[in-house]
Recover the amino acids of this structure.
């Protein structure tokens, strides 16, 4: 049997029956603009006979990507406006992003950094730029957490990651290193015991945050890769993007969250789709997102509840945008009063005498 390879072009995808031959020209135009990569592990999860396959929808280019909305922008969450030195994004007071590489194992069609990631885009941090970025972290004593992101930091070798973690281990005020990745799903064999060991830094807590959007992504090899990280003592969280035609229904979303928890991964964020160029066909409305979050409450365990968040365009940071279950009720004579909604939709008055002065 021929060895499965990574598909890196529209022609590869057509040859693998993952895209229709008549779409080739248009998909080549998409691929000229945005990087394409689909690994064998994720490609094997796609049903080529299903035109709505939720895995294909995330990685196989679509001609709709050529349509750019006025509200969409090349840097929708404002990374560049908050970058004091190359490789660093300092948006919130106590944490920074450290972007080591600008390539990924797979390229997601909805990526908010799609104008920055991919071969031939921005270059990986040079040794001098990495030294300057680490210098910035050392000088800013308010930085409590460093988030390795990219691109995907886990495509780097264990040797390079060990060197970065060793440098961060020497910075007293940094207590937490968080790593954002899709590699355990996209290329699970890269998560070796040696790589897991490389992610630990003496005296620091390391968290790995897995990007997963559909329960089928947690295939046996991906589950085993995540288990290697958790068994190595690295707690895992998840982030998912709410995507039209992928996970925007209550059953799929609940199954995704439960599957993550079963893999010892705590659901952390459900992102509303960012205003990245050519991605409107994959975005839901916020009202749809709020309805989905309501559907999770009560239906699945509290362990399975992510925070539904929006990155405010322009670099203003993330805000929770889930539905509210509490509202002011007409004031009682002796103080403020609230109406609280239970998981079945029933409403209850929270008594005004719950606290004493
Ligand atoms: S893995 Fe992350 S950075 Fe890379 S294309 Fe997907 S969303 Fe973008």
């Amino acid at each position: 049997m021929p060895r499965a390879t990574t598909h890196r072009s529209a022609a590869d995808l057509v040859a693998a029956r993952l895209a229709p031959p008549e779409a080739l020209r248009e998909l080549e135009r998409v691929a000229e603009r945005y990087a394409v990569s689909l690994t064998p592990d994720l490609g094997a999860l796609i049903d080529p006979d299903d035109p709505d396959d939720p895995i294909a929808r995330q990685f196989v280019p679509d001609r709709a990507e050529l349509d750019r909305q006025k509200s969409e922008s090349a840097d929708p969450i404002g990374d560049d406006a908050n970058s004091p030195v190359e490789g660093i994004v300092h948006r919130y007071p106590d944490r920074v992003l450290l972007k080591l590489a600008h390539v990924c194992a797979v390229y997601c069609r909805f990526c908010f950094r799609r104008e920055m990631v991919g071969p031939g885009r921005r270059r990986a941090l040079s040794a001098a730029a990495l030294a300057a970025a680490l210098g910035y972290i050392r000088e800013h004593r308010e930085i409590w957490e460093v988030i390795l992101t990219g691109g995907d930091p886990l495509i780097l070798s264990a040797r390079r990651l060990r060197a970065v973690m060793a440098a961060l281990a020497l910075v007293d005020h940094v207590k937490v290193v968080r790593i954002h990745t899709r590699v355990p799903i996209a290329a699970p064999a890269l998560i070796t015991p040696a790589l897991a060991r490389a992610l630990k830094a003496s005296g620091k807590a390391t968290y790995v945050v897995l990007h997963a959007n559909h329960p089928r992504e947690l295939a046996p090899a991906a589950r085993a890769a995540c288990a290697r990280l958790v068994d190595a003592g690295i707690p895992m969280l998840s982030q998912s993007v709410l995507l039209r035609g992928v996970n925007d229904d209550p059953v799929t979303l609940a199954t995704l969250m439960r599957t993550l928890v079963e893999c010892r991964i705590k659901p952390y964020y459900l992102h509303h789709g960012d205003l990245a160029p050519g991605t409107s066909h994959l975005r839901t409305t916020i009202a749809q997102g709020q309805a989905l979050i309501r559907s999770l409450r009560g239906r699945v365990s509290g362990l399975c509840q992510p925070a539904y968040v929006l990155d405010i365009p322009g670099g203003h940071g993330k805000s929770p945008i889930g539905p509210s279950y509490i509202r002011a009720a007409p004031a009682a004579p002796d103080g403020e009063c609230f109406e609280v909604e239970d998981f079945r939709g029933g409403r209850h008055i929270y008594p005004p005498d719950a606290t004493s002065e």
